[in-house]
Amino acid sequence: MHNMERTLILVKPDGVQRGLVGEIISRFERRGLRLIGLKFMNVSQTLAEEHYAIHRGKPFYPGLVSYITSGPVVALALEGTNAIVAARNTMGVTKCHEAAPGTIRGDLGLEIGRNLVHGSDSVENGEKEVALWFRPEELVSWTRDVDRWIFEGA
Ligand code: IDP
Ligand code: MG
What domains are there in the chain, each with its CATH number? Predict the structure, then answer.
């Protein structure tokens, strides 16, 4: 289908610790994105460094890696038309205090270093990150009965 994309969403350790897993997942679910992978896991140092490789060398990098490895996360692979931009808009901008009300970060957070959620930032990175966090057999290929009411071309 036209514009069908994949995104990797993480509920970061602060979201898990604060009991916001259901709240956060439900926002993506209600948006219409189709779940294709879901797991609860600790993040190894290796995975954290690979996931955030693009930020290596930046001043906030060490804090970022220790944040994402500080406790378990929930990883979601989601699929949908325009999934990348749709999910990013549902998340809100990186700095929680500047994120719009109605977004996850704008409703639930205050600081950039405790911003609750990760979402892939491009179609290419969506594919790469889903493959980094999920083995092929962990992804579920399925048709939702409601797909045709959410995806016009389904
Ligand atoms: P994104 O998560 O909205 O895509 P990125 O720029 O990709 O934002 O940065 C990745 C993560 O690194 C952010 O979500 C945030 O947790 C952290 N981060 C980015 N910039 C800063 C900063 O200036 N200080 C502290 N943490 C930062
Ligand atoms: Mg990013």
Answer: 4-149 (3.30.70.141)
